[in-house]
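ingest -> fold -> write
write: protein_1
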Amino acid sequence: MNKTQLIQEIADRANGSRSEAQKFFEAFTDVVTSELKKGDEVQITGFGKFYVQERAARQGINPQTQRKMNIPASKVPKFTAGNALKDAIK
């Protein structure tokens, strides 16, 4: 399922318009993004938790040249599924 299909499915299940569903979906993604930028986490009980994980600097190998290269430290978004979501897909 892609973004367009997801928005259409939300509109269908909520008996709303596609434009309303898109507006709410974009608001949701904006809120999650801004909270993660601040370093906070977003926890939706039963669904899961969005959070930021820090990766340490490390050495890697360029696959084209086989030369060692330094990979800088970074922050990456992560998602952990909640128990209700895990149980629903068993």
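write: protein_2
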Amino acid sequence: MSYAHHMQRLGAFVRGYWLEVAVLVAALDAVGEVVFRRNEPGAPEAAVWFTAPAVALMVLPLLARRRWPFGAGAAVWVLAPALSFVDGRLVVFTLSVFATGIAAAFLLGNLPDPTQSRAGLLLVAGGALTIAYNEPSGSTGTYVFTAGLFSMVWLAGFALQQRGARAEAAETRAANLARDREETTRAAIAEERARIARELHDVLGHSVSVMTIQASAVRRLLGPEQVKERDALLAVEQTGREALAEMRRLVGILRLMDDSPDLEPQPGLGQVPGLVEQARDLGLAVDLLVVGDPVPLPPGVDLTAYRVVQEGLTNARKHANASRTEVHLRYEPDAIEVEVCDDGIGAAARSEGGQGLLGMRERVSIFGGEIDAGPRPEGGFRLRARLPVPGRS
């Protein structure tokens, strides 16, 4: 187990620092070549005590590429041309030094800083020309080939860096768009909830006020002997007034500074014909179909159903580019169903009017209803909401 554990740690180290390991191997290989092949044709003419540390010095700067990305690659392409003036065969003799030059050129091209990357290209091209010039067997063709080869390696690193930068920028834009979309959605929901609270305050406040006034009127008609009944009605009055005061305090924080209370009654399905006529006046052909006998609805349900029709007509006129719209009101024994269908661009209506639909979902969910919105198979867009009506079954 201990041997396997040590091998796993060694494997993890090699995977994390493979380039550093390769640099050390290349340095040892370069030193071995100039030491053991010094008598071969084309070998460096300088003494071994100079050539051995010199080739290692050209390779080892890449060990610092994590801390100094530009300096490590630049050091290779400064040292190699400089040492070629001492011995023209020294740089081109070992394969390890050649591979080091390839790696350094690629790393310089792969730098994220464009100024450093372009400076690296000058070092690579200039250094390659200098090395080719100092080689005893060099020629014009060698100069062009050597400079072109290492410049192409630099270009490969530069292209890879640009591709990675574009991918990272795309991911950043996608993340920002997703965050902005989420923030917009949250803001729309919060705004709609505040609006719902204000409207429900007006609806419930009116109902509680009527209840309190009626209780007060009945209490004043009681005889002197009806003490218990008078006390009960007085408790109802006090509870009603306290409830109204508490609602005003809670909803008051939701009102904007310039948002004055609406003194008009909140609308309901009884105002849908007027809403339809208004849409017709604005150029939208609207058909209204009522199924079932209209019956009084709870104020909150009545207001929500009206808002669904209003949202559907607004989407059809502003966002869907519709020419004809149908509004269906279905009175069922235990529910009211509202449906708005148009022949416009379904996808456009869904995307452009998405924030309004979020608000409708909030409204309908408050009363335990369900809402469905989306493109129709035959074309166009449909908004349908079904709201349960308590006490009618």
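write: annotation protein_2
The chain is about 65% helix and 10% strand.
Residues 348-353 have pLDDT under 50 and may be disordered.
pipeline exit 0
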